[in-house]
């Protein structure tokens, strides 16, 4: 973790030395997420698209080297997860975490109009929620702050396009499995690992609109 933060600071400092323009942007995200699910030798459950319009916020610092290339970094709050359904038992599970994310990336194109970007994001899960439905009836629900059911942090990669007037389309893939396979819980006095043979990698498509640039409406710059 210390090495990551140190490297990030060096990159930001080096980039700022060559910057011709620095500004901040802020936006939200509408997320459609799914997951690659592996259950070992058992049949994998059906994966259902999850829509999460709330609560996803992004705040980015932008360093432009000129009109056609730039660098960005930021701090994000994101609601991300997936839905899995066993069609035999009719049990459906909904999983989600709220994360604090630190993205870094590069962008190429017209910095005030249309450009392509890609990068890496380091995310810290804050709150975990799990819901269980049987025959469409909710039977269990709980959420835990800083839960051991998920990893301490996630690694993710993303690519996207920004269009004129701030419209933005992004694809993101989580390299880290969603759950902690070593998590242990006691059920009727018996220790179980509920996620031991349940490995999932979440990915999503997000639509967002950049709302502000340096605290002014973004569309004025496009």
Q: Describe it for me?
A:
By secondary structure, the chain is mainly β. It is 7% helix and 62% strand. The chain has one helix and 14 strands; from the N terminus they run αββββββββββββββ. The protein has one helix at residues 2-17; strands at 21-38, 46-48, 50-52, 57-64, 69-86, 91-109, 115-134, 137-145, 154-162, 167-174, 185-187, 190-192, 199-213, 216-217. Strands 1-4-5-6-7-9-10-13 form an eight-stranded antiparallel β-barrel. A hairpin with a 2-residue loop joins strand 7 (115-134) and strand 8. The longest helix has 16 residues, at 2-17. The chain is elongated and about 65 Å long.
Number of E-state strands: 14
Strand content: over 45%
Radius of gyration: 20 Å
3D shape: elongated
In percent, how helical is the residue content?
under 10%
Sheet/helix structural class: mainly beta
Question: How many separate helices?
Answer: 1
Mean pLDDT level:
88
Gap between N and C termini: 38 Å
Residue runs with pLDDT of under 50 for 5 or more positions: none
Question: Could you list some keywords that capture this structure?
Answer:
eight-stranded antiparallel barrel; 222 residues; elongated; mainly beta; single chain
Please outline what is shown here:
The protein is mostly beta strands. It has one helix spanning 2-17; strands at 21-38, 46-48, 50-52, 57-64, 69-86, 91-109, 115-134, 137-145, 154-162, 167-174, 185-187, 190-192, 199-213, 216-217.
